[in-house]
Amino acid sequence: MATGFAPVLEPEKKAQQPTTGPLTPINEIQARLLNYVQDIPDPRVSRTQKHLLTDILVIAILAVVATRSLREIAGAQGWEDMENYGISKQAWLSEFWELPNGIPSDDTFRRVFERIKPEALEQVLSQWLQHLMGSLAGEIVPIDGKNLKGSYDRNQGIKALHLVTAWASEQRLVLGQVKVEDKSNEITAIPALLELLDISGAIITIDAMGTQTEIVRQIRQKKADYVLALKANHPTLHSQVKNWFDQAQAHNFEGIIAFLIHKRYIPDPEQLNQQRFKCAAQMREPL
Q1: 136-232: CATH superfamily
Q2: Calpha distance 199→221 (Å, rounded)
Q3: What is the pLDDT of residue 11?
Q4: Could you tell me the pTM of the whole model?
Q5: Quick one: which of 188, 223, 236, 266 has the fewest CB in 10 Å?
Q6: Which has the higher per-residue pLDDT, 13 or 261?
Q7: Would you list the domain boundaries of the chain?
């Protein structure tokens, strides 16, 4: 879970149910979170339920996103941490949630999360985070795939967990993640991740792996812009663009709206005067 949240503050009055009057910022956040988690289907058998699903989910989410502040419990890493967080905050939590049988045990957290569909929970968290942040208009949102450090176990033959992540640069928050088997599957994971997000007005950046027609179409359908890398994995398009810039440069970009972004010399033992530059140009027609 991404960091970057302020510690949850104690409210002055109870807000178990949405009120008709104006909400304070903290009460509004709690009410919105409740609205989102209510959409997650309960996988449990009715007769075995001692705790409300909304109570379990909200306590778990708050325990994970809680940040280190003074003596507060910080960033739950497991089921016991979630239970401990709930116990330490029970008086405050009871002002918001019913808690008919107190705080769920660590085993209850584990059993519930083992049965909940990850996609449903992921979508709820993404929606809640984006509500907290507001509009992404004009913000750069990189999408990239990385192996999660320490997630592999050679002795048990467990591969490293590979995640495709959307990152809100300005807020420094993870907007969403999708698990993939390896880097080669990022092409199918990126559309699934984009489907979870409200990226209207944002500028999406992806490396050469994500330079795909369908991905571009999806970004535009979601009313966002994009900056994609173009490398030799698309030989025809790469050659066309390279030739276009070569010809434009040879004619000093005559009749073309262009500007130099960056220019520098690269020391090279074999070619001391090697020059590299970055240039942006307006194309007559979109590629």
Answers
A1: Ribonuclease H-like superfamily/Ribonuclease H (3.30.420.10)
A2: 10
A3: 36
A4: 0.66
A5: 236
A6: 261
A7: 26-123, 136-232
